[in-house]
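Next comes the chain:
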Amino acid sequence: MLRQLATYASVGVGATAVHYALLIALVEAGAWPPVPATLCGYVAGGGVAYLLNRRRTFASDRPHAEAGWRFGLVAFAGFCLTYALMSLFVGRLGAPYLLAQVVTTVLAMFLTFALNRAWTFRAG
C-alpha cells in the first residue's frame, strides 16, 4: 500500500501541475475568482490522473466502462471537497489562494487515494 500511495502521489504531481497551471493562468491572466478557477483546474488535472493512475498506480484491468464512471464519482467527491475547503480558506478566512490550494490538494489526495484503491480500480 505504501508503494501505491507513493506512486499515486507522484502521478498526482503531473495532474497537480496541470491543475495549478490552469488555476494560476485563470486567476492571474484571466482575472477569474480563485474558487471557479481551481475547479476548472481540478477537472483538467483529473483527466491526467485517471490515465496515469489506471496504468501506473493500480495496474487495473477493470474495463474503462466500469472504472471511468467510478473514477468520475471519486473525482466528484474530491471536487466537492476542493470547493468546500477553498471556499472556507479563501472566501471565509481570507487565506492566499495558492497556500489554500496546497493544503486542499494534500487533503483531497488522501481521500481520493483511499476511494480509488478500494473501489475504482479494484478488480471485480
Summary: The two ends are 19 Å apart (CA to CA). The chain has four helices and no strands.
